[in-house]
Write a structure and sequence with these properties.
Number of helices: 31
Strand content: 15-25%
Number of strands: 31
Shape: globular
Radius of gyration: 34 Å
Structural class: alpha+beta
CATH topology of one domain: Isoleucyl-tRNA Synthetase, domain 2
Largest sheet: 6 strands, mixed
């Protein structure tokens, strides 16, 4: 890079600001900040309690999203958000706030485990090495973190409390009447007293321990169940839906993923669906993120309807938002995984079964088995896609439409998912496009029950697609018991819902797209579950005295993997191989007994669900967090009714995973009285991405971007033409630039300024190493304006600045201060640059009354050079805690502004006028202007539009 760095070739004065000087300044001040505890944020109590005067200030809790310590280290795109929060935090300190800003590491997860499998290195060894490297890279950037509060999720002192929170969730249930979580012991007491009837035919006292555990499992907020999961044989683990790509493969490793039924831990996040949805309104989040969460939660109002099926009194329950179209339901579709499928499949095809319904199979059982295998090979995303070819198979069973009494065939098809509604639909093909396509493919009947508004008529045999409407009238919807004919959709919905409820075959209900959170992983490098099983298979939570349950040593870190295409396999976890750890004798209060430990581990999301709380009180070994400390930093206050972190910065990719999970944990902890904040993050800001050009050869392979030459608008690598595209920055794309490189060439302050100056923080922008020098020049001019490059002496004077300089200074203070407060860092830098350029052009020694506020303006953005200049100006206290300069309003307002006078939309004059001029005064001046009088040529005036002080528009008669 030095060949392209203009600074490298220039003659250097002894005291000129260079990369070497920057490196010296930056290292010295970083050492000073660490030794001095410059960024220590005092708590109101506890071991981090500090100066009461500082605690009395307004507080500001600023957070970055947890970084994962990658072995590849940082490229210049990674620190964008960290630099931004650091600049904002520094400005907040200078404007009188007690600022908590720190950074920990989200260090459990699959990458370290995979590295361990490949190399035999313990995941902790590689992870801790990666953390040390990342800490060094971040320290070099001058980030003002309170290092006393840092931690990693792999620290036993940390995951003790992750396990403790799991136990609280396990020992809780959601009281729908109280709309909050309550201890499970209170539910047990209700069952014991008879206040609440357990969902069994026997009294609670008559149930065995295993039976009681099964009942409570239906209520617990953390529960184990046999559920459909995404099984990845190639990785040897199950995956969350979000870890599966759109083409049904694992996000990591690109292995096939299949549907399987396994016993897994789940979090009953669905109990909080309404609160998760409603509380979004009070959060200061980007609307796009709120919309994604609302869509993910997916609240819809409709009705539950039971369709009798078989001879054993079974019923297929569906949820529909269009219960008004029940007369039009001519067939049903179950998800292939639906629990009723096996029980309703007859031994042989019913007489007269259409050949197209059987898929060519000899028996219904064979058809269902084959189709289930086919559906299991597809992801949920693929199954929901609007594929042109609809697939499915008849189960051989018929259900009864409860309103018409018609027999309707029951199919299974991949476009119906167990993850939404009840895993079953009533198909109304005349009024749903997917049902229409399926009905056409399988030659199923259609019945028009919503009168078309076009001229197609009600004969569905002539239709090319379904007709859907919420405004039309109901037709063909009458029986001996009820008629909906002539009613509008809303009226019909109300009437049919009441009718169903009266007969006990349905009811109005609300449904959510949100599913319970799969919380088990068949991996080693994660938090062990604080759960043991007794001889009856009943799960018991470990008491707090036995936490943390530390991750044991194992000889083989990898879960057992299988042929990636072999769906008929099941997990074998690394922890299960440590028999001495798995089988243990414990006294849980009723004497020593032998137990078996849970051998799954928690997902990598667990540690980041609550880490904001640990930042508050990181050394507390007795409580999750001291209540007074949590209340101080995160409690509700004006404008923040649910409390939470004041500013949370990170990528938009976490919209419906980490953010939703963390909100759920916060609400449970709030309900149980452990915290005062019902939401973890009040204000969310999504930074954009730093992109880079990728250069690809004729094979499409990336080539080293640093070695590409540009000639006449074309690009060449080793003499061969290559194509350029804008994309991500990364080692695999051979276009990564490390912060270490830029710091070595220009200094960290230059890197900080460049990343903040590239454009608005919330938009993506391309990296251009050649443009970095612009911010390097700014710092050189700043230095030169205060320090003599030859002697190293400070050149400021005690003279008074002229009016032009005062106006330039106070406009910069006013503009940059407002921009820093609103995170408009690029425009703040532009205003500081404009001021510095003014001072450079003016020449001569700077007045101290200008030099000092100039340094303070720069301090949040380029803290190292600001500290050095502040010390050179004679100050002994750190610039970090100085007051940000305040603009004098008298110098912010321009003496005059330019007013444009238009006639018929064309500019005829420009007037220099006072900015405080009234509309009436401005109109008089404009009409009296010679150029305006000449342009009017004696014509009358129909209207004068005045927008003081910038515009007058004259409309001639």
């Amino acid at each position: 890079m030095s060949e392209t760095n203009p600074a490298a070739a220039e003659p250097v004065a002894p005291h000129r600001y260079t990369a070497a000087m920057a490196a010296d300044i930056e290292a010295r001040w970083q050492d000073f900040w660490d030794a001095d505890g410059t960024y220590a944020a005092p708590n109101p109590s506890g071991d981090l309690a500090g100066d009461p005067a500082v605690v009395a200030r307004p507080k500001k809790f600023i957070m970055d999203m947890f970084p994962y310590p990658s072995g590849a280290g940082l490229h210049v795109g990674h620190p964008l958000g960290y630099i931004a929060t650091d600049v904002f935090a520094r400005h907040q300190r200078m404007t009188g706030h007690n600022v908590l800003h720190t950074l920990g590491f989200d260090a459990f997860g699959l990458p370290a485990e995979q590295y361990a499998v490949q190399t035999g290195t313990h995941p902790r060894t590689s992870t801790e090495a990666n953390m040390e490297n990342m800490k060094a890279q971040l320290r070099r950037l001058g980030l003002g973190h309170d290092k006393r509060r840092s931690f990693a999720t792999i620290d036993p002192d940390y995951y003790k409390w992750t396990q403790w929170i799991f136990v609280q969730i396990f020992n809780s249930w959601y009281d729908a009447e109280a709309k909050k979580a309550r201890p499970i012991s209170e539910l047990v007491a209700q069952f014991e007293s008879g206040e609440r009837q357990a969902p069994t035919t026997r009294a609670w006292s008559e149930l065995s321990a295993a039976e009681r555990a099964e009942v409570l499992g239906g209520y617990r907020l953390a529960y184990a169940s046999d559920a459909p999961v995404n099984w990845c044989p190639g990785l040897g683990t199950v995956l969350a839906n979000e870890e599966v790509t759109a083409d049904g493969r694992s996000e990591r490793g690109n292995f096939p993923v299949f549907k399987a039924k396994l016993r897994q831990w789940n979090m009953r996040i669905t109990a909080y669906a309404d609160r998760l949805l409603n509380d979004l309104d009070a959060l200061d989040w980007p609307e796009a993120i709120k919309l994604q969460q609302r869509n993910w939660i997916g609240r819809s109002e409709g009705a539950r309807v039971d369709f009798p099926v078989g001879t054993e009194g079974d019923a297929i329950t569906v949820f529909t938002t269009r219960q008004d179209t029940l007369f039009g339901a001519t067939y049903m579709v179950l998800a292939p995984e639906h629990e009723l499928v096996d029980s309703i499949v007859p031994a042989a095809w019913p007489e007269g079964t259409h050949e197209v319904w059987t898929g060519g199979h000899a028996t219904p059982a064979e058809a269902v088995a084959k189709y289930r295998a086919f559906a299991a090979s597809k992801s949920d995303v693929e199954r929901q896609a609007d594929a042109k070819e609809k697939t499915g198979v008849f189960t051989g069973a018929y259900a009864v439409n409860p309103i018409s009494g018609d027999q309707v065939p029951v199919f299974i098809a991949d476009y119906v998912l167990m993850g939404y509604g009840t895993g079953a639909i009533m198909a109304v093909p005349a009024h749903d496009s997917r049902d229409f396509a399926f009905a056409r493919a399988f030659e199923l009947p259609m019945r028009c029950v919503v009168e078309p508004s076009d001229d197609r008529g009600t004969d569905t045999s002539t239709w090319d697609d379904a007709f859907g409407s919420y405004d039309a009238k109901l037709v063909n919807s009458a029986s001996a018991d009820i008629s909906l004919d002539g009613l509008g959709v809303a009226e019909a919905k109300e009437k049919i819902t009441d009718w169903l409820a009266e007969r006990g075959i349905g009811e109005g209900t609300v449904n959510f797209r949100l599913r319970d959170w799969l919380f088990s992983r068949q991996r080693y490098w994660g938090e062990p579950f604080p759960i043991v099983y007794d001889e009856d298979g009943v799960a018991h939570a470990l008491p707090e005295s036995m936490l943390p349950l530390e991750l044991p040593e194992v000889e083989d870190y990898s879960p057992r993997t299988f042929d990636p295409d072999d769906a008929d396999t099941s997990p074998e976890t690394p922890l299960s191989r440590n028999e001495d750890w798995v089988n243990v004798t414990l006294d849980l209060g009723d004497g020593p007994k032998t137990y078996r430990r849970e051998t799954n581990t928690m997902p990598n999301w667990a540690g980041s669900c609550w880490y904001e709380l640990r930042y508050l009180d990181p050394h507390n070994s007795e409580k999750l967090v001291d209540p007074a400390i949590e209340q101080y930093w995160m409690g509700p206050r004006e404008g923040q009714p649910h409390g939470g972190v004041d500013l949370y910065v990170g990528g938009a990719e976490h919209a419906v995973l980490h953010l939703l999970y963390a909100r759920f944990w916060s609400k449970v902890l709030f309900d149980l009285g452990h915290v005062s904040s019902a939401e973890p993050f009040h204000k969310l800001y999504n930074q954009g991405m730093i992109q880079a050009y990728v250069y690809r050869d004729s094979r499409g392979f990336p080539v080293a971007a640093a070695e590409v030459e540009e000639r006449d608008g074309k690009f060449f690598f080793e003499g061969e033409p290559v194509k350029r595209e804008l994309g991500k920055m990364g080692k695999s794309l051979k276009n990564a630039v490390t912060p270490d490189e830029i710091c070595a060439e220009y200094g960290a302050d230059t890197l900080r300024l460049y990343e903040m100056a590239m454009g608005p923080l919330d938009v993506s922008r391309p990296w251009d190493t050649r443009a970095v020098v612009g911010q390097y020049r700014l710092l050189q001019r700043l230095w030169r304006n205060i320090v003599d490059e030859t002697t190293g002496e400070v050149t400021v004077t005690d003279a008074e600045p002229d009016e032009a300089t005062l106006r330039a200074l106070h406009k910069a203070i006013d503009g940059a201060g407002g921009d820093l407060a609103e995170m408009r860092f690029n425009t703040a830098i532009a205003k500081i640059t404009e001021l510095n350029n003014h001072l450079t052009k003016a020449g001569g020694a700077l007045p101290r009354s200008v030099a000092e506020p100039l340094v303070l303006l720069v301090a949040p953005l380029a803290p190292h050079i600001a500290e050095e200049l502040w010390r050179k100006l004679g100050h002994q206290d750190s610039v970090v805690h100085q007051d940000f300069p305040v603009a004098d309003p008298a110098y912010v307002v321009d003496e005059t502004v330019t007013c444009v006078v238009q006639i018929k939309g064309k500019v005829k004059a420009r007037l220099e006028i006072p900015p405080t001029i009234s509309d009436e005064e401005l109109e008089k001046l404009a009409l009296a202007d010679e150029a305006v009088v000449a342009a009017l040529g004696g014509a009358g005036i129909r209207k004068v539009i005045v927008r003081a002080p910038k515009l007058v528009n004259i409309v001639p008669a």
